[in-house]
């Protein structure tokens, strides 16, 4: 038999405060009233009121309010644990009157739409995994079809989670603490008013990928997508598998040459060696996912040989270069095998770092040499073991290669020894100016890519020699033996 209000409040006892709250809400929801917490003291008491209690803020003329100062008030109190008490939670009635009629549809009350503790735990887990609120809401509805929550409920829970994670810390202090704890590389710049004007962030796994694949980077800027109206410059690298990975992120107050130059200098440092905090958490998830994808792909492609390349011509390339590179070479191999080849412009070798059909035709009947593949496409020289120290790992690998070079150098013919000495001399004397910003130019328009320069050169000049458009800084003539005899 259903209890009336006075009997329910008089005889009910509960083992915990949570049990009391769950029961009293269900009791009053069934009668068309919403219950909210006015105040509480842990393991002592909890003060309950109607969710329409309180006085509306009349200064906010553009919003509506459900508050009508309902006088209803009861207290949930824990009995003493001594000889005269059993530690149970009971009710203490203060005022049972109210100044409004019960609701015919309780779903309009925000207190009714609160999530149970199990659902809040699921929201926390899915938020940490980077799942957007709309998908979180759909997932909860699939598990509990009659869930009274709406999409705004999820946003409110996420807001509460962020507040709990911050504690009493300002957001920006929490951000820098977490960056340091996570081993991030970051740089910061302030304007004249001491506000943050630039912020560079790089995940430690991003740094490892940047050092492994340091040849190709693409930069793009999103416009004012956070509450600080700062642009986000996204720096993306390209792996030997032709997949992209996040290399770094830069928040910029303005998009001008000075800010871009600062971003490039900050990024150069790692080559040599919502709110911002929420963005940082999403960056962590994205970078860790990308790093693991590339690491697994690197390991698996060292073990696998594509069926279409399982022939003597490709034997020296197996497990040494990426499958993407093998596929591109095989396409050129097919072109060379068909025998119909147009005039060589050098485009393919220059832009891809891989041999074209003309070079492959020259090597037909033999085993293709690994020396003709650009280092960016190699996987045999890479290791993405996160346990290794980045700096020490590079030194150990360098010493290992020097020892291998010293032993093989003794067996080389004289002309190959002379070529090796020439290449090493060029590397030693080469100055690193790749990321230096141009001085005296105020435009932020990007420079044309190498492909665009080659295209422009071809459209304005007649090609008289098939080697004329090859970038000799990348592929010296003595490396490729392009003698026009294809």
Automatic annotation (TrEMBL):
> What Pfam families does the record tag this protein with?
MULE
What range(s) does the MULE transposase domain occupy?
Answer: 217-271
Q: Mind telling me which InterPro entries this protein's record contains?
A: MULE_transposase_dom (IPR018289)
Tell me which domain of life the UniProt entry assigns to the organism this sequence originates from: Eukaryota
Descriptive protein name = MULE transposase domain-containing protein
Per the UniProt record, the source organism is Lactuca sativa
What's the source species' lineage?
Eukaryota, Viridiplantae, Streptophyta, Embryophyta, Tracheophyta
């Amino acid at each position: 038999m259903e209890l009336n209000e006075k009997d329910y409040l008089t005889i009910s006892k509960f083992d915990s405060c949570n049990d009391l709250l769950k029961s009293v809400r269900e009791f009053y929801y069934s009668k068309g009233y919403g219950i909210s917490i006015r105040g509480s003291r842990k393991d002592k008491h909890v003060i309950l009121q109607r969710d329409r209690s309180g006085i509306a803020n009349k200064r906010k003329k553009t919003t509506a309010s459900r508050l009508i100062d309902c006088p209803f008030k009861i207290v949930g109190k824990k009995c003493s644990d001594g000889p005269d008490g059993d530690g149970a939670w009971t009710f203490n009635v203060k005022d049972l009157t109210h100044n409004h009629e019960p609701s015919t549809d309780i779903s309009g009350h925000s207190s009714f739409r609160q999530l149970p503790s199990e659902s809040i735990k699921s929201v926390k887990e899915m938020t940490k995994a980077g799942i957007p609120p709309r998908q979180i809401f759909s997932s909860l509805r699939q598990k509990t079809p009659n869930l009274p929550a709406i999409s705004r409920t999820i946003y409110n829970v996420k807001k509460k989670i962020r507040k709990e994670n911050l504690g009493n810390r300002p957001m920006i202090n929490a951000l820098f603490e977490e960056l340091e704890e996570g081993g991030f590389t970051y740089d910061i710049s302030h304007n004249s008013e001491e506000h943050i004007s630039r912020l560079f962030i790089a995940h430690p796994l991003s740094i490892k990928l940047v050092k492994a694949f340091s040849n190709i980077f693409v930069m793009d800027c999103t416009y004012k997508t956070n509450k600080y109206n700062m642009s986000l410059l996204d720096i993306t690298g390209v792996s030997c598998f032709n997949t992209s990975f996040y290399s770094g992120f830069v928040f910029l107050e303005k998009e001008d040459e000075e800010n871009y130059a600062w971003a490039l200098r900050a990024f150069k440092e790692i080559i040599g060696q919502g709110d911002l905090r929420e963005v940082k958490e999403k960056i962590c998830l994205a970078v860790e996912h990308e790093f693991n994808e590339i690491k697994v792909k690197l390991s698996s492609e060292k073990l696998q040989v594509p069926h279409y390349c399982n022939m003597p011509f490709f034997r020296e390339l197996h497990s040494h270069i990426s499958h993407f590179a093998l596929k591109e070479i095989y396409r050129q191999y097919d072109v060379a095998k068909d025998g119909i080849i147009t005039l060589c412009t050098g485009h393919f070798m220059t832009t891809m770092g891989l041999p074209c059909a003309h070079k492959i035709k020259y090597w037909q009947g033999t085993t293709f040499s690994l020396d003709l593949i650009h280092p960016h496409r190699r996987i045999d020289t890479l290791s993405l073991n996160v346990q290794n120290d980045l700096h020490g790992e590079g030194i150990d690998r360098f010493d290992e290669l020097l020892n291998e070079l010293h032993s093989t150098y003794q067996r080389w013919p004289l002309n190959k020894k002379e070529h090796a000495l020439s290449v090493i001399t060029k590397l030693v004397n080469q100055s690193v100016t790749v990321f230096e910003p141009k001085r005296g130019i105020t435009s932020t328009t990007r420079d044309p890519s190498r492909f665009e320069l080659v295209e422009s050169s071809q459209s304005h000049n007649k090609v008289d020699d098939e080697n004329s458009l090859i970038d000799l800084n990348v592929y010296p003539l003595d490396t490729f033996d392009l003698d026009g005899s294809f």
